[in-house]
Amino acid sequence: MLAETLNFTRAAERLHMAQPPLSASIRKLEEELGIVLFDRLPSGVKLSSTGEAVMREARLTLFHAEQVRRTAKEGSAGNVGTLRLGFTGAAAYELVPRLLRAFREQYPKVGADIYESHTSELLRRIESQELDVAIVAYPVLEKTPAELILLHHEHLMVAVRADSPLAARDEVTLADIASEPLIIHSRTQAPDLHAIVLHAFRQAGVRPNVVQEAVQVSSMLGLVEGGLGLAFVSSVVLGHVSTQVKLLRLSGPGSKMNLGMALATLPGGLTPSARNFVQLAKGLMQPACAD
Predict the structure, then answer these.
(1) Helix 272-290 × helix 95-106 angle, to 10°
(2) Distance of CA 180 to the CA centre of its chain
């Protein structure tokens, strides 16, 4: 203020203080720095050449101090930082792009560190706090401390090669395909979906001919294209399969499997950015999920 006014009296008035304490503060600062900041003249004061150099640095210091305060406020509000997001392969087709696009529009300064895996691994990483949020297959039958928030309903479909006799149909029953070579979710890496599919066959009263297990949807579709068999895949891949594959609806006994995608978080462990992502995802997806 003294550098701006070059007058002790006016500077003291603007600082709402008496002049003697201001003069004492300037002298103390000069003594601490071991330099003369102001040349005292009969007509007032002026910055010394050294004082001008110090003033430039002081303004930068004030600017960076304000930046620190602003960053701290933005961080506590979740407007900056990094979101550690995990998701299953099925979520990568539509759900993750939609949510990330909306999140980046609303929080452009928040980066995203993404990790794709199967539900069991994602839950483990949530529990160990290696991830903030994960989008996992629902329901989750294994025991977990994670909180699950259902975002999206879906159903399983049967993927067949486009040249398969079954491709002439639009839907099949589990009994229709029980004797076909089947590709289902891994017993060890996707135990929930594995159990759901086998339970559906039991409900239909038939035994499946399982020839291969896989984890990711893309792998299952690749195996179907390679002629290894039929695969159970999520309906979210509709519109994202090659012309070599056709998806058939399931009907009849055992076909009503309540499936979906859910957010997994650790209660009490959300960062501000993660909390914002959860709120955004719930606002975008849950109204449609409720319908």
Answers:
(1) 130
(2) 39
Tokens found for residue 15: 């600082």
Beta-carbon contacts of 25 under 8 Å, excluding residues fewer than 6 positions away, are: none
Q: Which residue, 126, 117, 115, 86, is CA-closest to 270? A: 126
CB atoms within 10 A of CB 1: 13
CA dist 17 and 29 (Å) reads: 17
Burial code (b: 16+ CB inside 10 Å, e: under 16) for 7-46 equals: bbeebbeeeeeeeeebeeebeeebeeeeeebbeeeeeebe
Supply 155's token pair.
């159903």
- Tens of pLDDT along the chain (291 residues) come to 888 888 888 888 988 999 899 889 989 988 998 989 888 888 778 888 888 888 888 877 776 666 666 655 545 555 778 999 999 988 888 899 999 999 999 999 999 999 999 999 999 999 999 999 999 999 888 889 999 999 988 888 999 999 999 999 999 999 999 999 999 999 988 888 899 899 999 999 999 999 999 988 889 999 999 999 999 988 888 888 899 999 999 999 988 877 889 999 998 878 899 999 999 999 988 655 555
Task: State the residue for tokens 């994670």.
Answer: 146
The H-assigned helical ranges of 6-128 are 8-14, 19-33, 49-76, 95-106, 119-127
- Name the packing angle between helices 191-204 and 119-127 (round to 10°): 140
State the distance between the two ends of the chain, measured CA to CA, in whole angstroms: 62
- According to DSSP, the residues that pair with 133 across neighbouring strands are 85
SS3 assignment, position 115: strand
Beta bridge partners of residue 38, listed in sequence order: 47
257 to 38, 198, 213, 236: CA distances (angstroms): 81, 11, 19, 15
CA separation for the pair 246, 261 (Å, rounded): 23
